[in-house]
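Ticket #4471: complex job returned nothing on first submit. Input attached below:
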Amino acid sequence: MKSKVKFGIGAGIIVVTLSCLAYVGAQQSKTYYHTISEIPTLSEASLHQRLRVAGDVKAGSIQHLAGRVDFVLMEQGKGLPVSYVGTDPLPDTFKDGAQCLVEGKVSPDGHFVAETLQAKCASKYEAAPGQAQPAAPAYSGDPKSKS
Amino acid sequence: MDLFGSYALLLAFALAIYAIAGGIAAIITRRPLLIKSARNAGFAVCALVWLGFGSLVYLFFTDNFAMAYVAEHSNRNLGSLYKFSAVWSGQQGSLLFWSFLLSIYVFSALFAYRGKHPELMPYVGVVLASVQLFFLTLNNFVASPFQVLTLPGAGGVLHLASQADGHGLNPLLQYPEMVIHPPVLYSGYTGFTIPFAFAMAALIGRYPGEKWIHLTRKWTMIAWCFQSAGILLGAHWAYAVLGWGGYWAWDPVENASLMPWLTGTAFLHSVMMQEKRGMMRVWNVWLVFTTFLLVIFGTFLTRSGVVSSVHAFAQSSIGRWFVGFLIIAIAACLIAFLKNRDYLRSDNQLDSMISRESSFLFNNLILLVACVAVLSGTLFPVLSEAIRGTKISVGPPFFNRVNIPIAMFLLFLTGVGPLLAWRKTSTESLRKNFGWPLLAGAVAAIVAVALGLREFYVTLCLLLSAFVTFTVFSEFYRGARVISARTGSNIFSSAAQLTMRNTRRYGGYVIHFGMVLVFIGISGQAFNQDKQMEMSPGSMMAIGPYTLHLQNFDSDQQPNYSSERATIDVDKGGKSVMMLYPQRRFYPSNEESGTMVAISSTLKEDLYVVYAGRSPDSNRPVIHAYLNPLVKWIWLGGLVVVLGTILALLPNRQAVMVMAPAAEGSPAFGGDARQPARASISARSQLPKDNV
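Support reply: We reran it on our side without changes. The output follows.
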């Protein structure tokens, strides 16, 4: 019985220590997800938080400028101007129409300053629900499976 | 003919229902013919799934672009190796591939134990067929890969259509590792179904003793081995292909593969407690259940889009099916457990804090904590939205802060555990066993600090690595010395003999050593450097001890892609040491480009050079160079882990001579408190399986 108690205490110490570390790690790296339409409604305080926004790259909006890349991220008809200032080169998948995930902060003028950027061209390989096929003949098989 | 496979899958679906219903009827009536019939249905399900999968492979190799799935994922000019891997590159095909690999396991298990364990196998058959039924439901009715291309004609009538060529395979997947990584990882995922089925069967059938543990040990090890190799192959693919200089990003999909590995590892250790001491029965059953549930959960995570990930499949409604199956599976586990929990009572209690048992308990505890941390980090956005209404994600700092200390503690236990005796270890034997290994660790750490190492965790990792390595080798040495003294053979052949006599134990040590190598490799990450520059022919870049001279660019035309290649001459200490050729490829069939990283890998460091693209301002090529120390150790360590697992899977060979009694040398020497020293007659005869 005594050993069981000792093990319990040891286990408790380990779990508590790791939970504290987890808490610190979470505080350090937490990023808030917001949709593009939410951004103008955010409070002053949340503008200082690290934000993550997803959307599609607006066709023709990518502009390569000195030290940054500007583009517009679209989601449900709303646009968000983004300046990517990260040091990593842009991924190959970053192009017009790509699904894109940016992380960074909103600058006072409403511009989103992104430090990291991820992109995928999922629609090329997998039809997302409700999206048209990019290639010429649209296919439909079992309609249940595509809705 | 194109739809042949879909009929095979439909038939498999119907037969899986029969295998379940017939199996349940067989359990109730105990009629031998019914038992046989249900088992044969199980075999037939597997064979039909193979036919279905084979016919999909055939459609890919015959470039049948009338099939939607083929047209989406392949093209004529795709190399035949990649045509094969394209089969599982999309949602539908990969789910069929899941069924296919699962059916190989199911067939092997049903075949291996046909006519044996008549009280257990009917239950196993029912559980396995139920899992197969779920995946066959997806294969047939939710995500069938056998859909034909159609075009809407006049009046909205659909006509069959065909394409001249397909859209091609994602260039990121056109890499040799992507041909083997998914099958290996999926073999790990699917393989955990077998121990799950046996645990469930033993619980429901109240099958006496630890038999199910003995029966499933090898299956669990096989699955674990595939899972380990699959995770590392995936990491290597990410490293060599994605061109970001790293191999692990705590991406949800990566985490999904890590979680069942953590619980599976915990299980492989805690089964020893049940085998040797009759403890932890409840815990072990739940570890197996959890591992299986995490496998299904991981498959769900990859496909549902519930957590955004760069390499998850596209969002689809399929997530609901997985959630449904998960709920049913959890309910089944709970009900089976609550109804039969008296069957799982422990024989023994924990005797001492300093014992093998407690080291296993701590090992299990922290593996579980690691799993919970990874799970909560992965689901953080979902959880925070549910609790606080805002979606919050956590990044690598969260995962690293928790998991690095856990990794260190695990490494410590890896060194300590095998040297502790079952039940209770005396202070004297502690001193005797740990004095030298600890000294080795301390010396390694002091030397490293004296040489200028200042990173806390790296120093700790080095200390513990030296400690574990020393204990592993001294275990081999101690045993080999005893054999050598008796047989007169040299120490190396004695060590080999020793290993073959108790493959599970010494294979386990080899795996531990492999993990040490992996940890050393990961710790190198603390010293990564990188540099990015616009370069034109003639320009130079210095990184670490290397100087990169860009010489020229050329282009190349291949059937499936065109490429642009930089030629870089690498100098070290004023002497040209090698040429590197980072490439960018362009794939016309899907208008995608991809990078081919040039990596020069040594045990000391990797020089990793990426042709990152052209600068937006000047249109000059951008070269990104990384200097990543010790990365090769990770892949080498993975290889050692796999070899160690294979070793542990080999049957034991009986000793030629009388083994040293358990008390001699080390308290853990016999490995088994119950097992008497073995005397033997023949060198080749194998021990009965239950004895290992």
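Residues 422 and 673 of chain B are 7 Å apart (CA to CA). Closing as resolved unless it happens again.
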